[in-house]
Amino acid sequence: MTLAQIFEKVVGPEANVRFAAYDGSKSGPAGAPVLIEVKSPIALAYLAQAPGEMGLARAYVAGHLDVHGDMYTLLSEMARVTLHDLPLKEKASVARALGVKPLLMRVPPPPQEVRHSALARLGSRHAKQRDAEAIHHHYDVSNRFYEWVLGPSMAYTCAVFPEEGATLEEAQYAKFDLVARKLGLKPGMRLLDVGCGWGGMVVHAAREYGVKVLGVTLSRQQAEWAQKAIAEAGLTELAEVRHLDYRDVTEGDFDAVSSIGLTEHIGKDQLPGYFGFLYGKLRPGGRLLNHCITRPTGVEKTFNKKGFINRYVFPDGELESVGLLIREMEDLGFEIRHEENLREHYARTLEKWCANLDAHWDEAVAEVGQGTARVWRLYMAGCVVGFERNKVQLHQILGVKLGERGESGVPLRPSRDWP
Question: What is this structure's pTM?
Answer without folding.
Answer: 0.92
